Amino acid sequence: MRGAAFWSALGYDHCYYDPAREIPDLTGKVAVVTGVSEETIGHYCVEQLALHGCKVYAASRNEQKTRNCLAVIEKANPRLRDSGLLVFHQLDVSSCVLAKRSGDAFVKRESRVDILVNNAGRLAFNYAMTPEGIEESIATNHVGMFVFARELLPLLKSTSKLPGTDVRVVVHSSLSHPLTVRHKFESLADLNDLPTNNSFFSRIKRYNTSKFMNLLFAHELQRQFDAEGYPITVLSLHPGTVQTAGAQACNPWYIDILFRTLGVGPREGAYTTLFAATSAEVAAQREKYKDAYLMPYGRLDTPVPQARDDGLARMLWETTERVVSEVCARAEG
Fold first, then answer.
1. What is the pTM of this model?
2. Can you tell me the mean pLDDT for 301-317?
């Protein structure tokens, strides 16, 4: 709790969010949380949503790890066993083709979706290109997430027209996004215009660039919903300095010390996401929160101005659409 107390003193209210009290009854709602494995933000998002009556699809590429996580949740919460509220869904966001197949499969198995939490992501690991020709951080954190969310748009839209609904899309970004602001996304070459060495600075630059893209995606998605008249709320957020096995694996020792000293665990790290996905305050003040950027555990903040650039957001969206179309066309032969 040292990390939580430190951030609380700076106004980041980790210590004062209680999911049991804050999350309303979600009975009858359906959520998708991407990137779910044990002792991660996804783990605790899935657990809390299900405990409040929501049917939750835990979407990830590693079925065994995710099923193990769901078993841990059920063991800790026996009333969730055989409840039908915890469901695995296969999703690999590192591939355009596989993300599209996953989205197509989801809309065939489910009739609604009230909450989409885009949590899956690649941390600051070594440089790699996917077989589809996209740098792996960009492919996983932006392009695959984009594809899966796009495939779910018809369900999100139709759900938002049902009586009494409050449909939300939550997009994970990062506090560090201002360090790698970009001004041009006209081609695949622009998406891939990143350092290729594996210094910590270069790894962080690739990661931060993808997190900046996440903010542009959220901004353009909200603009489209508003223009089409769908009452869907899109929120982006920084979940906090969260200690996870993935963070430990990619951080150098001196950063790891900071995470261990000032960070919070994944349970507390899920609080901002849960606030964004479920808070009654967001529903009551939708105009205030739509296209909002949140800091822990739900404090409104302002991203860099470029993250709210309509032209840049539209450029990224259109280029991503074109890249995905070309990749999928090649895959179909």
1. 0.91
2. 94
